[in-house]
Amino acid sequence: MSEEPRDSLIPYDTIVQEALRAVVGRVLTQVEQSGGHLPGAHHFYITFKSQAPGVSIPKHLREKFPDEMTIVLQNKFWDLKVSEDQFTVGLSFNQIPSTLVIPFAAVTQFVDPAVDFGLHFQAVVADPEPQEVEDGVNDEGEPGSAAAVEKVEDGSNVVTVDFGRKK
After folding, report:
1. Is residue 105 within 8 Å of residue 124, measured between CB atoms?
2. What is the distance between the alpha carbons of residues 90 and 79, in angstroms, rounded to a whole number?
3. pTM recorded for the entire structure
4. I need a surface site. Which of 49, 57, 61, 152 has the fewest CB within 10 A?
5. Dihedrals φ, ψ of 160, to 5°?
6. Which strands form 68-73's sheet, in the order they lie side by side?
7. Coil, helix or strand for 124?
8. Of 3, 18, 1, the residue nearest 163 (C-alpha)
9. Mean pLDDT over residues 116-121, rounded?
């Protein structure tokens, strides 16, 4: 038997990524069905590619976060609407109310620090060059991605899926 892995004709990596993103959709749907109330101490850090197809955010946010942005769903958010392939949420940035539309395919991280749970996804959009950007914050949130990721990287409930393909 050969030691080299074979190229799969079944796109396992894509199937797993879609299934894990469905977890995010299911959790957000439960919050939507509860009237937008998070149970207990739960709160979410959601990181997404700001330039991904279907992402709709205000121009000033796209300029501030040209590659990736992290939002916090905790105290002040409204009009959470979840569909099969995206979610819409109202958040305030510097006291300016904004509506964001985020396809699940654009999500790269979902973290619930209250229970040390996190999912990390492969980027859907190719990154030409990593760029330095500030952490995203909501009016009532904590700094975004850096703090959230560091807090859960050592946790046993973090799931990272990174399928490498031999070329």
Report:
1. yes
2. 6
3. 0.71
4. 61
5. -115, 130
6. 68-73, 44-49, 107-112, 117-120, 157-160
7. coil
8. 18
9. 94
103 membership: H or E segment, kind and range = strand 96-103
Residues forming beta bridges with residue 49, ordered by sequence position? 68
Residues in CB range of 73: below 8 A, 6 or more apart? 31, 38, 43, 44, 46, 80, 89
Residues 49, 68 contacting (CB under 8 angstroms)? yes
Residue corresponding to tokens 């990524």: 17
Instruction: Evaluate whether the domain defined by 12-126+133-160 bears CATH number 2.30.30.220.
Output: yes
The tens digit of pLDDT for each residue in 88-112 reads 999 999 899 999 999 999 999 999 9
Closest CA to 108 of 165, 148, 63: 148
Q: Residue 142 — very low, low, confident or very high, per pLDDT cuts 50/70/90? A: very low
And the tokens for 114? 């209250």
Burial class (CB in 10 A: 0-12, 13-18, 19+), 130: exposed
